[in-house]
Automatic annotation (TrEMBL):
The protein's name: Dihydroorotate dehydrogenase electron transfer subunit
Transmembrane domains' residue ranges: none
PROSITE patterns found in the cross-reference section: FAD_FR
Statement: the UniProt record of this protein carries the keyword Metal-binding: yes
A single BP term in Gene Ontology: pyrimidine nucleotide biosynthetic process
Organism, as annotated: Desulfobaculum xiamenense
Length: 252
């Protein structure tokens, strides 16, 4: 059964609110930001065959939700779900972002990569240590940034032309070094954005975690559809070994 809402978001952005699979199970009681779920409405039958991975946006006794953007046929069909439609959810899956309570922590999000940080920000015991820098193309109102800005310092940069992208990369180049001595950098977003973060952090000798959003099929390490290159372990499944990696562990 699902409840379904898109309140507060524009365009192709939706919050899918689901009845909680099992709020009392230890895995769900202890879930942490960075983890994800595989979502598959039963109405999909065999097409598409595989569920789709989404970061857990919220999960508590009231429900489980993911925040998603329509990009293809799976997300298009998710957006059309009606209250009462049945959805299968596998999770919580994957590992989590580090929390360094007393360290200045920079959260870098690109587009829908903002989703896993909503709960990270809500739960952090020292929000004064957090700063969010958010790059996006659709208007900022499409994303849940305003809610995060009630708790932590947030800066958003919209890309409307190629020069905006250069400005955003320049901003990353200015802000990341401040967190490279004693702080922590966390990033989630498209691959080119993660590569840029990885490069700047490496140049300044910092510590960063990157959450990868590789395409996934099984979500549990069985199909090898989501591998990335781990420097020590070779090819590893992002779903089972990640999706969060230390930036110096992986090569793109
Ligand atoms: C761990 C993880 C967490 C994620 N969290 C979120 C989230 O919170 N919210 C959200 O909206 N999306 C998230 N994604 C991406 C989401 O899974 C894809 O957008 C979704 O699977 C696309 O399905 P589709 O059937 O609509 O698109 P398809 O029809 O399969 O593909 C349509 C287009 O989307 C592109 N695409 C497909 N999968 C991805 C992907 N993983 N990353 C980038 N582009 C993709 C394809 O290349 C293609 O251009 C996450 C992915 C991972 C791996
Ligand atoms: S999605 Fe199948 S191994 Fe990761």
């Amino acid at each position: 059964m699902t409840r379904f809402g898109k309140e507060g978001f524009d365009g192709d952005f939706f919050e899918l609110v689901l009845e909680h699979p099992d709020p009392q199970s230890p895995a769900w009681r202890n879930w942490k930001p960075g983890q994800f779920v595989m979502v598959r409405p039963t109405a999909w039958e065999h097409n598409p065959l595989w569920g789709r991975p989404f970061s857990i946006y919220r999960a508590d006794e009231d429900g489980l939700s993911v925040f998603f953007q329509i990009v293809g046929r799976g997300t298009e069909r998710l957006a059309k779900l009606e209250p009462g439609d049945e959805v299968t959810v596998w999770g919580p899956l994957g590992n989590t972002f580090a929390v360094r309570e007393d360290a200045p922590t920079l959260i870098l999000a690109g587009g829908i990569g903002l989703a896993p940080f909503a709960e990270y920000v809500r739960r952090h015991p020292h929000p004064e240590n957090l700063k969010v820098v958010f790059g996006h193309r659709p208007p900022v109102e499409c994303y849940p940034l305003a809610k995060m800005a009630e708790r932590v310092s947030c800066q958003s940069c919209r890309e409307t032309c190629p020069a905006d992208l250069d400005d955003f990369i320049a901003l990353l180049g200015r802000v990341i070094p401040d967190y490279c001595r004693d702080g922590l950098v966390l990033a989630c977003g498209p691959m080119p954005f993660l590569k840029t973060v990885q490069r700047i952090v490496a140049e300044h000798g910092g510590k960063a975690q990157l959450s990868l959003e590789n395409r996934m099929a099984c979500g549990v390490g069985a199909c090898l559809g989501c591998v990335c290159d781990h420097k020590e372990e070779g090819p590893v499944s992002v779903c089972a070994r990640g999706p969060v990696f230390w930036s110096d562990e992986i090569t793109f």
